[in-house]
Amino acid sequence: MNAYKELTLQGLWTNNPALVQLLGLCPLLAVTSTVTNALGLGLATLLVLVGSNVTVSLVRDWVPKEIRIPVFVMVIATFVTVMQLLMNAYVYGLYQSLGIFIPLIVTNCAIIGRAEAYASKNPWQKSAFDGLMMGLGFTLVLVLLGAIREIIGNGTLFDGADLLLGAWASELRIELVQFDYPLLLAILPPGAFIVMGFIIAGKNWFDQRQAERAKTPEKQVTRARVTAQ
Amino acid sequence: MSAINISAIEAGQLWSFHGGIHPPERKQLSNQTPIQTLPLSKTFVVPVKQHSGNSGEILVAVGDDVRAGQPLTQPGLQRGLPVHAPTSGTVLAIDEQPIAHPSGLTDLTITLAADGQDAWYPTTPCPDYQQLSRAELLERIQAAGIAGLGGAGFPSAQKLALQRPLEYLIINGVECEPYITADDRLMREHAAEIISGTEILMQVSGCNKALIAIEENKPEAIAIFTQLLSERAATASRIALRQVPVKYPSGGEKQLIEILTGRQVPSRGLPIDVGLLMHNVGTAFAIHQAIVLGIPLIQRVVTVTGEQVDKPGNYWVRLGTPVADLLAYAGFHETTGKAAQRVIMGGPMMGFALANLQVPVVKITNCLLLPSTTELAPAQQEMNCIRCGACADVCPAQLLPQQLQWLAKAKDYDGLEQQNLFDCIECGACAYVCPSEIPLVHYYRKAKAEIRNIAREKAKAEIARERFEARQERLEREKQERLERHRQAAEARKAAQAEAVAAGADNPQDAVQAAIARAKARKAAQAAAAAKANDSAEGESS
Amino acid sequence: MTFKIAASPHAHQRRTTTQVMRWVYLAVIPGILVHSYFFGLGIFLQLLLALLTAWICEAAVMRVRGRSVASAWQDHTAIVTAVLLAISIPSLAPWWIIVIGTAFAILVVKHVYGGVGQNLFNPAMAGYVLLLVSFPVQMTSWPIPQQLAQLQLSLADTWQLISSGYSQAGYSLEQLRSGIDGVTMATPLDSLRTDLSHQLTTAEALQKPIFGSFAGVGWGYLNLAFLLGGLVLIYQRIISWHIPAGVLLGLTVPATLLWLFNPDQSISPWLHLMSGATMLGAFFIATDPVTAATSNKGRFIFGLIIGALVMVIRTWGGYPDAVAFAVLLANMAVPVIDKYSQPLAYGHGGRT
Amino acid sequence: MSMLTAIIVLGVLALVFGLILGFAAVRFKVESDPIVDQIDAILPQTQCGQCGYPGCRPYAEAIANGDAINKCPPGGEATIKQLAELMGVEPQPLDAAHGTEDVKKVAVIREDECIGCTKCIQACPVDAILGAAKQMHTVIAHECTGCDLCVEPCPVDCIDMVPVPVRPENWQWNLEQIPVTVVESAK
Amino acid sequence: MIGKSMRHNGMVLALFAIVATLLIVATAQFTEEPIKRQQEQELLQVLNQLIPPELHDNDLYQSCSLVDHAELGPGSHRIYRASLNQQATALAVEVTAPNGYSGAIELLVAFTVAGEVSGVRTLRHQETPGLGDKIEIRKDDWITSFNGLTVQGADDNRWAVTRDGGMFDQFTGATITPRAVVQAVKRANLLFQQQQQQWFAAPNNCAGVSS
Known about the structure:
The complex is a heteropentamer of chains A (229), B (542), C (352), D (187) and E (211). With 542 residues, chain B is an alpha/beta fold. Among the domains of chain B are: 6-41 and 120-318, 3-Layer(aba) Sandwich (Rossmann fold); 379-501, no CATH class. Chain B is 39% helix and 14% strand. Chain B has a six-stranded mixed sheet, with helices on both faces. Chain B is elongated. Chain C is an all-alpha fold and 352 residues long. Chain C has helices spanning 17-27, 29-39, 42-65, 69-74, 77-88, 95-111, 123-134, 136-140, 155-164, 173-176, 188-197, 202-205, 219-235, 242-261, 269-274, 278-285, 296-316, 323-340. In chain C, α14 packs parallel to α17. In chain C, 57% of the residues are buried. In chain D, a hairpin with a 7-residue loop joins β2 (129-130) and β3 (138-139). Among the domains of chain D are: 35-98, Electron transport complex subunit B, putative Fe-S cluster (3-methyladenine DNA Glycosylase II, Chain A, domain 3), CATH 1.10.15; 105-163, 2-Layer Sandwich (Alpha-Beta Plaits). Chain D has five helices and four strands, in the order ααααβαβββ. With 187 residues, chain D is mostly helical. In chain D, the strands form two sheets. Chain D has a two-stranded antiparallel sheet. In chain D, strands 2-3 form a two-stranded antiparallel sheet. Classes of the chains: A mainly alpha (229), B alpha/beta (542), C mainly alpha (352), D mainly alpha (187), E alpha+beta (211). Chains in contact: A-C, A-D, A-E, B-C, B-D, C-D, C-E, D-E. Chain A: Keywords: Cell inner membrane, Cell membrane, Electron transport, Membrane, Translocase, Transmembrane, Transmembrane helix, Transport. Chain A: Its EC number is 7.-.-.-. Chain A: It is a multi-pass membrane protein. Chain A: This is Ion-translocating oxidoreductase complex subunit E.
């Protein structure tokens, strides 16, 4: 079970694909103008990630080293295309607002990164869990970024949630602040960069403080004798 | 080599170099009076190494009596430059003393107690030096302990020993650094000797053209040289005078070469790579003294200046004289108030502050500057670089000082080398103009020292690795050899046994087998006894 | 007596960063005066707000970073940022505009990167762009020149407007921006751009009263005033001529070509030079040493890029004036410019 | 129909690329991995064993196989930084369990106390100690890496580790460290 | 060696490609219908906002025709006719306003047979967020100010923004965007008044032409 705990920690925090590996920034920054969009893309990425990780892990023994990258890309591309078609068919509104960024999931380095770094070396259960946690980590950052940008730039939360979750979700919309003049920058792409920068800075600051607080573990290392006594 | 611009050089054309600054010259302070001779001190501290390169081997022992001009060291195995006794007296000590170095560290010195007689060691004058061979001349220059008196202190004979085609010998009388007038006074008072020294240098280097460069702010020196050269037609055809516009650092070797010839010395190259050789006027004078009069380098002109001295001027100072004695004679009065006094050896741009006044005057000491805080205000607090680029505008090496500064702070040594840190001549122009008062040169020096150290460490690590691997190999070999020996010994033993058995002796192998059988029997008996004892014990307890 | 150990050189030219910065903000004074003559007293209130915000932000950051507050104020760089931002925004903009802009410039653009000398982007212009992108309405509501306005504003009126949005008499900014003919006025560049997109020719567009006789009422003289200040800076060797020359050339040459080619649909080079923030940008903003290229050649290229970008954005872009965007874009190009304009060091083959 | 085309086209394309890759994999194979040599070149070669490996080369091999890069106290921060760059990982602080970065030192034998046991000679990884049984030993200072492996075996504790002296040649331009002489007023 | 490696890699890769393509093809087939329905519904939703259900009983989506008029902008434009009991009642037309602040604005404008505007919606635009994007119904109801109005001839001066002396508010700070929209709607209305007969009579020919 320890391995799963470690995977959770890795995906959500220490090796978070968005905050630490800085992978998949293009969709990350482009679609996070609202929580709804962020959540939509996050979930789509998560599904693709889990699917591709499991598939890659299952086929890893049959894929020769030389062609593993093309195979991984093909697996991911298939999942994304299927996902795109399904979204187009059943969550049309969200499909429209996420637009071009769904096909771009194919090029989200986080996914092929996990396939190569983890799934191709580990059994499918662990790979699935790794995909889940990495995807969750990615989604959480997306949602956080989306929330901050939406609040600053629009004064709302869950604006347009009905597009993702159906008509009932329009109830979710919260008008937090009524701005006369919202800070438009926040929902424009440069705002995404700036807010993302602050989130990363915050994480690093937190980690550093934790590291300072943590006592260095006492560890005994036996020094090797280089030479005969 | 560019023969194309020879005619332009001949025509007296001057070029210019990038950047440069015009700090207040303040030469009037010390160039008004003739050079005075400093009275002999009671003790002299002669550092064994006063030049760049290796030190020589010490020839004297504590208690020895020496005379003025007597060599205290000889080149020896390390091909060092000799130093000579500045006056007659007794060797008091040979030990580590603070030396004139920015670090304030100590180095090996020979301390002399002067006897006041100033008796001279026999000299070998040679007025008709034309008869001497090149090798002999070089030998004499070396033996006289002459190192470049302009500042770097590179042994002159070594510089002259390089044999390459030469177009010009340049005699550097620019003395561009503010305050310093040692060369100025020397040129005014000893022009003939300098010209004589120049001729010797031309003979040694096999160069038949020389340029004497003097900055335009020394009209008296220029007048004297013009006159002397015009009086001697034979000389004038070979030696030309060039007046150099006032700009700091036009006296820098590379900068002066660009001014006079329009050529640039290749990076990490030498002037000789572009057919040029440069010596300072002081060196020319010293060579004249050494060859014609046979006097080794035991004294030099030192400018003592600044508002904190009563008698600013130039002094003939014996090498090894403690700075304190010179300052006392020149009337140094300390600053009052809290502000700390700076005693600068060298000029305001490139000199270094002394931590201790007991350090001796050495071959490269051209100036002692004692500024008041009003004339040279101490550095203010360093502020952040605002990338204004003023430093790049004045850098005579056309480097990007601010870039170097960022890299030096970031300890990016590869980046520093890419930005040609080692082309920096440490002239200080960048730090002079820096509005944020960043001690730029200091950063470069630190970085340079660090890079050199890293290179040294790297070389050392490489040697250590080789030694380690050699040792591993040796151990492995020894192990193999040992095994081999054991094997051979065992075989020999076997053979011997076989022989013995064959000869009818007991087979030792049988004896061993018998011993083992005995031991086994004993063990079995013991085990049986123990089992019995156990049984009985159990019986009792139940 | 003790000896002071210091690194060479021991001599120093006495021109400090503080003095450099002081020259910069002294040289904008003519511009500020002309500005107040045409657009009223609002500029002084904006300056005041900007300076206060800048000082408070600097002090706060320095306290947080555990550095001396005095040292941050001492170098006067924050003053320059505040002044440049204050004269860039419409002078009757609400108070929170300048406060947000200055705070962003100081806190995020300057100090997040590490403070003086470390920032990648020109703080004043980054602040300006933040404001322009976020509050386009306020940032494009330039007051009309007083000479064309129906109502003249007292200082008290101005203060009321900036602090609450209404003058003492209860007029809103929008109402006050109506000209003599009752039509709200845009800046000359904005007006021209609108009209051009409206299928008017340049000549027709220039008939509007805002243009007056000289490159737009107020704006022409404002640019002349900044030009004057800029020339003083060059004369004082605070800035080198390379960047302003680059900007003006980079703007004028393509603008002239376009104008010769298509005079009816383009802005004349003269109007380009004498309107908007051209001179302010060329002499005061682009020349910010921290964010400009380093070598003289690099500076000239940097200027050319800004000038050309200004022209391109003004002609085809989404915003009528473009100096801020052009400067920020060129800031991003600085490392590349520096890399390729690095002078050949002595002894590296320049002369042999 | 179009679907069949898609399947065929993609299948054939994949087949062709697979063939190319299969060819390239054999044809352009890179043989040895010189990474160990590169790592070894960065390590300070003190051969001190503080990393837990018998010598720098074994540690270099361990790093190449994924061991942590922060186990070398003599190299200190600079070495970690270089290793991080070479290995493409984040630099980490020195693992204190292996020791701390210290000034460069050199071993010196107090010669009058030396009994000539040769134990230190056997311990020295770079053969920097000269001597023979029952004869006095001495350290070749400029070959000594300062690893202090010789200190412990010495039965009479006559080996000192002294910091490498600062000479004007290797001085680091730290003006703050210069002791300033206070001169009493001459008057 | 090479032959074996090539054969193996080629086969595996091809196998994967075929399986992947099969999967995609299957999904595409499966989702084809729903996707079409979604797109239809999307447009219908807008159309129904513009043409109230009580005004029509026909399938607006099917009753579509392509027309070419310079006034509507370059290229073909779709018109959707509404009828109640076979009686033409209203019509929606796609209009391009080419002179927005940042490029063209795509509008859908509906008119009743009486010639008055029954509604306008923005389909696509790139106007400045926070400024020009108030033409979206989601952001502002400015777009509804057209409802019920009619252009009285080409020189109807009321059809302009207030800045130009017309009756439509420009929203603060931006004039170009509303001006472009007002002009486009005006042009469309004039064209509708003139083309009404032909447009209602035009055949349904949108099918197969993707938008």
